[in-house]
Here is the input.
Amino acid sequence: MSTTPVEREVIERERERELKERVVEINRVAKVVKGGRRFSFTALVVIGDEVDRVGVGYGKAREVPLAISKAVDDAKKNLFTVPKKGTTITHEILGEFGAARVLLRPASEGTGVIAGGGVRAVLELGGVRDILAKSLGTTNPINMLKATVDGLRRLRRPEEVAQIRGLTVSQVLPIPTRVEEEPVAEPVPTVEEPAAVEEPAEVEPNNTGAVTNGEVEVDAGA
Here is the structure.
């Protein structure tokens, strides 16, 4: 079956945005029953397309692969979009869940993901490339991930805040623009030409008169 160029482009785009999964923690738990202990496994998984969608899931089963599969299915139900500004988040936020508190702070381009544990997995699969994260509460992996998700879900875009306040985006989130100043041409100094000095006209002396005060006296004896 042949596909049109538009369909091929859509398929390629969806392939590029294929969800990737990352296992954060696998734990063995036990349930005490009448005949002894019954062991099972829990899996904490993060999935995302490394662009703007991410989700966290938790699964439990008698075998590890089945637990991971359940966690992935749970994460797909909890997918959400992360508001971003370039390669970082739009503003600072404090995510809370139970005793866990995770501070997320925007960072300049080139900083990288400064985070540890499962928080890094959530941020990287969510498409965030530059961010500062700090855990201020418990280090329980499940609560830390859910606190991170809480912070990312409560992020708001500048367009939403501007619409609520009735302002423009530039007033809510001013973005400094660098205006290149046009070089000002230096004034060319004008050279004043020296005024022409009138030279006195030369009068040729003759034999018949002499020049006195610019007048010619005629010799009476001539």
